[in-house]
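**Folding the chain**
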Amino acid sequence: MNIRELTSRTGIAERQIRYLIAEGFMPAPHGGRSNADYDDDHVVAIQRYTRLKELGFPPAAIKLLLQGGHGAPFTVAPGITLVVNPDLLGQVADVTPIIQSRHRTSQGSFGGTNP
């Protein structure tokens, strides 16, 4: 798809797409400048960046999360950290039930009481 199709599909302006590429938040298009071709990987990168911005992450933090490659740590409870695969960051999914389940399991495993 060309950049106009990408902007239509994602709702992001061309200028913002160029910024995301320049700053390394998404890969460069295939085919060079005059034949720039974007695919679903570019759409996913834009969605991931947009979702993380919506969650309140500043661009510098997003860059660190995505460049880390090992996952993004989120403290779930004292002494318990959930590490999220960077490829999953920004995807729209409600992980609250999983976190609550793991929290209940950990409370039972470490001598706490289950709610």
In short: The beta strands are 72-77, 80-84. DSSP finds five helices and two strands in the chain. The two ends are 51 Å apart (CA to CA).
